[in-house]
Design goal:
327 residues, alpha/beta, Rossmann fold, DNA polymerase, domain 1, 2 domains, globular
Length: 327
């Protein structure tokens, strides 16, 4: 199960640590007077240092619990506020900033995946380490994971497990899920997957991991959300504005990598023996090499181990349609 790191809880403790914080700040270079977006507020792990650097921050989160703590922050209640909270998906940030009268942004941080706050609450149903209701909804609205596994056709479940979890034995797992219906708890689902795949205690990776990832991505529309968010970022960033995206699994990272490759002015060649195909020009430049956590960071925060940071700088070229697709 992947999880992004976050900042403080509402009780003032700091049990979570924002992943690759120094590297994200280095990529964004916040400064007084800049207007920036934290596209995945969580508990404010990136927002807080952006504010401390003097930036105005527009923070987004679809989880209604996430923004509660920040409503009392001095920057949020100042006049005018330096922290503007948006309870919506980050794919809607173009419209949200339009309503706020903001046309261009100097920097955008996107920290993808499920937050540590969500993962650590059994009642949210994201993890199988503690038994809880089979939920997994980031927004706490709409169909839940239980709705999906108990109602979807076997073939659809298998397709989701294969596409979003890269589960090679997706058909076997889907067949076992259908046979075990109804499933209402994370423990029950994990048990079914483990039995279908074979579980060796002490193995490095729990066999249920891929299935839980796949179901969570599916019911939250995470890859569609990411594709729309990257497109919105390209439209919102001012020339010289910077984008920093932290992903936690290969599907997210491949989408971000592909987006930046095409936006930097080239698409993948049809063959490795042929040159890249030029696009309409570079809408992003200074695409940095991927950055991963140091051994020290992983030791201090094991949930950082799968994180990858990709960053780039927006050029002055007009935005192009169709630069990102999740299909």
């Amino acid at each position: 199960m992947t999880a992004r790191g976050d900042g403080a809880h509402g009780d003032g403790a700091r049990p979570h640590t924002p992943v690759l914080l120094a590297e994200v700040l280095g990529a964004l270079t916040p400064a007084p007077g800049m207007v920036m977006i934290d596209a995945t507020f969580g508990a404010g792990g990136y927002t807080r240092p952006l504010l401390d650097a003097g930036a105005v921050v527009h923070a987004f989160d679809r989880d209604p619990d996430a923004l509660v703590v920040a409503r009392g922050w001095p920057e949020a209640i100042a006049n005018p506020p330096r922290l503007v909270l948006h309870h919506c998906c980050f794919s809607a940030m173009l419209a949200a900033l339009g309503r706020a009268g903001v046309a261009k942004i100097d920097g955008i941080a996107m920290d993808l995946g499920v937050s540590s706050m969500q993962l650590d609450q059994p009642a949210r149903g994201f993890a199988f380490s503690s038994d809880g209701p089979l939920d997994m909804r980031m927004s706490q609205a709409g169909p839940s994971a239980a709705d999906f596994v108990n109602a979807a056709p076997e073939a659809e479940i298998a397709d989701v497990l294969y596409r979003y979890g890269e589960e090679r034995q997706s058909r076997r797992v889907a067949r076992a899920i259908v046979a075990a219906r109804p499933l209402t708890t994370t423990g029950a689902l994990a048990g079914v997957v483990r039995k279908a795949l074979g579980h060796r205690p002490g193995a490095d990776r729990d066999p249920a991991t891929r299935s839980f990832q796949a179901i969570r991505i599916h019911i939250n529309g995470e890859l569609d959300e990411l594709a729309a968010g990257l497109d919105a970022a390209g439209r919102l960033l001012a020339p010289g504005g910077r984008l920093a995206v932290v992903s936690f699994h290969s599907l997210e990272d491949r989408l971000v990598k592909s987006f930046l490759r095409v936006a930097a002015g080239a698409t993948p060649a049809p063959s490795r023996h042929l040159p890249a195909i030029a696009s309409g020009g570079a809408t992003f430049t200074a695409v940095a090499r991927p950055v991963r956590p140091s051994a020290r960071e992983v030791a201090a925060n094991p949930r950082a181990r799968s994180a990858t940071l990709r960053s780039a700088t927006r050029t002055a070229l007009a935005w192009q349609e169709g630069l990102v697709r999740c299909g």
